[in-house]
Amino acid sequence: MPSTVLRLCCAFFSPRKGIGFLSQPDITTYFYNGKNMPTLETASKKLKALHTAIDLFNLYGFHNTGVDLIAKETKIPKATLYNYFHSKEKLVETCISFQKSRLKEEVLAIVYSHRYPKPSDKLKEIVRLHVDVNSLYHLLFKAIFEIKQLYPTAYRMAVEYRKWLLRELFDLVFSLESTAFNPDANMVLNLIDGLMLQVLSSNCLDERDVVLERFWGR
User: Fold this and answer.
1) Cα separation of 5 and 110, whole Å?
2) Which listed site, 19, 85, 138, 149, has its alpha carbon 20 to 30 Å from 51?
């Protein structure tokens, strides 16, 4: 059982060579000789560091959150963190990749769910998924404004997610009832960004659902 869990962790957290939760050499080592296989304890520490880094980046921003602070909060030695992620840049890329993968899963779960009878209901739920202080989208949204020059690879990951989301929104908008108000996909994405700015500035969700109902009730 432990080996199965570790295999799943390796596969999920390594979407690309060198930037995943466990890098490609780790996976290769695990599958081909097993002698230097990372332990579940190590995997657990990496996951703890990843979640802590995401929380700190969301709270203080990418520029104000250093490896020293992450080491302090996780109680994992700084040298160990560098051994896990190699650099702050790679850590940022891993965080963005992690949130991006989880967001895609959540969006697709809504798209293919039978809980929402109409495409407009799915669109509203996708907006709610993204617009929250604690949403998975928070980190990617922050990345768009903060890391274009400093961490260009991570920035491109955030941009790629928005392009992917736009395509999913387009498909839902295209399937809306012809008699209903039909926003275009860019309008829905702009709505997400505008509401996210409002929520982050007020730290309150009171207006989100009101705006959503007015938007689709117009």
Assistant:
1) 26
2) 149
3-state secondary structure of 117: coil
What stretches of the chain show up as alpha helix (H) in DSSP? Answer: 2-12, 24-32, 40-60, 67-74, 78-85, 88-111, 119-130, 137-146, 152-174, 185-202, 206-217
CB 134 within 8 A of CB 199: no
Contact between 87 and 97 (Cβ < 8 Å): no
Q: Which residue ranges form the domains of the chain, and what is each CATH number?
A: 2-87 (1.10.10.60), 90-217 (1.10.357)
The tokens of 133 are what?
Answer: 């202080």
Reported as a single tens digit per residue, the pLDDT across 145-178 is: 999 999 999 999 999 999 999 999 999 988 876 6
Residue 204 neighbours by CB under 8 Å, 6+ apart: none
* Tens-place pLDDT, residues 55-87: 999 999 999 999 999 999 999 999 999 999 999
Give how far Cα 33 sits from Cα of 2, 20, 30, Å: 17, 20, 6
Is the distance from CB of 174 to CB of 161 less than 8 angstroms? no
Residue 205's closest CA among 135, 144, 118? 135
How far apart CA 74 and CA 59 sit, in angstroms, is 15
Residue type, 62: F
